[in-house]
């Protein structure tokens, strides 16, 4: 995706300024800094990578993702608008985009790159609390993230902000009829992926999400929160027992509960996470 092609699709409503560094490396989406022409405020235009777009109805994705407009919370970057960039190639499927407010801050993934052994406890806990607040608000609104990971947590001066609520569900609903049901779309365990009928990021998906359980609910986000917590505190995703040696026992136990394979054994809600972190 080039800035010129994106600008053509956006028309006069937004002015594309530049591609954001690191967006291709993080692999969740390509991102461009733009400015709302009417308000003069900075925004970010995000587009899906090619390996996801190949099996997608771009128009349906754009319709589905705007459900996240309902989210209004300091720790959530809501979807402001969405649409489709017409495909310049032979497939004519188009590339969906969605627009979110600009958050001035690095991602938690970038923070972890600078702290390979994990971030200090007094830094990690406020981040985890903010993410739990974002999940609590979204779940109360009926929206499950389904792709929570460090790339989707931005660290601003005002706290952590979670982006891309509703994107994984929109990808799931917008996958075109007739796409191979067992297609392996990506092998990277930190990139948004579709494997069989499961949509998410393999390294952060709860077991029921990886199994494409149609009855999955908000507790998949609590599992991903546990993976995120483990990674922030240790620098690595959990492997086997989830005990965190240098964390307070209560926090280590909370993370372990979130990582239970059975949803019923996890905390019941993001509000329960906040109560435990109080």
From TrEMBL:
Residues 1-278 form the Protein kinase domain. The keyword NAD does not apply. CDD domains: STKc_PknB_like. Keywords: ATP-binding, Kinase, Nucleotide-binding, Transferase. InterPro entries: Kinase-like_dom_sf (IPR011009), Prot_kinase_dom (IPR000719). One of its GO terms (molecular function) is ATP binding. This is Protein kinase.
């Amino acid at each position: 995706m080039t800035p010129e092609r994106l600008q053509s699709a956006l028309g006069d409503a937004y002015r594309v300024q530049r591609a954001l560094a690191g967006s291709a490396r993080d692999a969740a989406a390509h991102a461009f800094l733009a400015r709302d022409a009417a308000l003069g405020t900075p925004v970010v235009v995000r587009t899906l990578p090619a390996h996801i777009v190949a099996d997608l109805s771009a128009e349906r994705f754009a319709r589905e993702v705007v459900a996240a407009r309902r989210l209004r919370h300091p720790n959530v970057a809501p979807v402001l608008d969405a649409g489709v960039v017409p495909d310049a190639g032979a497939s004519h499927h188009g590339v969906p985009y969605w627009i979110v407010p600009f958050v001035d801050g690095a991602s938690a993934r970038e923070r972890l790159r600078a702290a390979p052994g994990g971030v200090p406890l007094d830094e990690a806990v406020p981040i985890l609390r903010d993410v739990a607040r974002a999940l609590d608000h979204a779940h109360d609104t009926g929206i499950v993230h389904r792709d929570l990971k460090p790339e989707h947590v931005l660290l601003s001066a005002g706290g952590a902000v979670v982006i891309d609520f509703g994107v994984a569900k929109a990808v799931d609903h917008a996958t075109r009829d007739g796409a191979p049901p067992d297609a392996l779309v990506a092998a990277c365990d930190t990139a948004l992926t579709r494997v069989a009928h499961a949509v998410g990021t393999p390294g952060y998906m709860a077991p029921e999400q990886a199994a494409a359980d149609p009855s999955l609910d908000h507790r998949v986000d609590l599992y991903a929160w546990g993976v995120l917590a483990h990674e922030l505190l240790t620098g690595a995703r959990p492997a086997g027992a989830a005990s965190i040696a240098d964390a307070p026992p209560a926090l280590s136990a909370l993370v372990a509960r979130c990582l239970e394979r059975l949803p019923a054994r996890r905390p019941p809600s993001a509000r329960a996470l906040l109560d435990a972190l109080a």
